[in-house]
Amino acid sequence: MIHPQLQRDCFVLGQLSLSHLLLMNDSRYPWFILVPAVEGIQEIYQLTPTDQQQLLAESNWLAENLQKSFAADKINIAALGNVVPQLHVHHIVRYRTDDAWPAPVWGKYPAKAYNDNSRQNLLQSMTWLWEYAPFTKKMIPIES
């Protein structure tokens, strides 16, 4: 189950081998979140060693493909959990020209929600997401 706050703030895109893949509803930044589908986990060390390795593999795969797709100046990766206690790992595409640079994006500006067209355009540009291959489970797109 995905924490209610994440459900309110994000679009669920699909399921990887371990994690749900979410898109944060803030069009200022391509911002994705991995949420391991393991109940009661708040920290990475609480995952089994196998799940820790799988989370790292999924995170690396996501970060690499985001870098290639968006030619980012930096991919910010963080697992904070100060507001949402469920383990989740943010992957945020950053540019030196973005609104918040060089500060963190949290709380800097109000979220600018995607409209249907902008969200669809973003996701359609990410063909690698739907051709997903590195894990045992195929990416399952979920309409939001």
Q: What is the β-strand count?
A: 5
CATH topology name, in short, is HIT family, subunit A
Shape, please? globular
What is the total number of structural domains?
1
Structural class: alpha+beta
Report how far the terminal alpha carbons are from each other. 16 Å
Query: How many individual helices?
Result: 4
In CATH terms, the superfamily is: HIT-like
- Approximate strand percentage: 15-25%
CATH level 1 class label: Alpha Beta
Question: Which CATH architecture is right?
Answer: 2-Layer Sandwich
Strand order of the largest sheet: 1-2-3-5-4
Helix proportion = 25-40%
What's the helix-strand series?
HEEEHEEHH
Main sheet: strands, sense, barrel = 5 strands, antiparallel
What does this 3D model show about the protein?
This protein is α+β, with helices and mostly antiparallel strands and 144 residues long. The chain has one domain (4-130): HIT-like (HIT family, subunit A, 2-Layer Sandwich), CATH 3.30.428.10. 28% of the residues lie in helices and 20% in strands. The protein is built from four helices and five strands; from the N terminus they run αβββαββαα. The chain has a five-stranded antiparallel sheet.
Quick gist of this model?
The chain contains 4 helices and 5 strands, in the order H-E-E-E-H-E-E-H-H. The protein has 144 residues and is α+β, with helices and mostly antiparallel strands. The longest helix is centred in the middle third of the chain and has 22 residues.
